[in-house]
Amino acid sequence: MEKLGTNYGGWYIPTDINLNKDSIIYSGGVGEDISFDILLQSKYDCNILLIDPTVKSVKHYEEVIQFYNNKKQFSGNIQPDYYSIISNYKPNLNKFTYLNEGLWNKKGTLKFYKQENDDYVSQSLINGMFGYKYDIINVNSIKNIMNNYNHSKIDMLKLDIEGSEITVLNQMLDDDIFPNYLCIEFDLALKGIDKNNDTHLLLKRLLTGNYKLLKNDNLNMTLKYNV
Prior knowledge:
The protein is α/β, with parallel strands linked by helices. It has one domain (2-99, 142-225): Vaccinia Virus protein VP39 (Rossmann fold). 27% of the residues lie in helices and 25% in strands. The longest helix is centred in the first third of the chain and has 16 residues, at 55-70.
């Protein structure tokens, strides 16, 4: 296993991972750190769909493009090792697509709760995860997004979506969609607000449904689908 990205935003993946120029990556949760996506694209020339409706995240992606075009510096709360890591790579930005929607189990609109500190980037569809202020955003399911982009498969799904992972993944499995690799941050369990033990139930469903756990880095889990 190797970790790609910053100490904060990186993920562990197998060194012999089967990705190439035709691979499709769905990356849910952009925040202000796409070091993992940048390194992944640079290394494997894969296609990456970034999915995040957060205003600060949209701005950060625009700044990433400006950084590689003219070395413009970033605003926001940037990780201390971000510049040193991404400066060493030259991703093909034409193979990135940005989707300004939230991930959920169906198409619609929902409240997107903000943190009490306006400087923090993350927001959540889960009431009680953060503060009481919210935006109204468009949401959609993985199946609908795949249909919209004419994607017949997903080679890797990365989710860091502040508690929505349980709803999104259960619906994905109900829709018989099985990405080859999963990189999931289980935020309900991580934040200690998983009152119904839904994380455990979902993990049991994954592990009894042909997924193998490759790495558990403080509830940031990498899994592989075994056909």
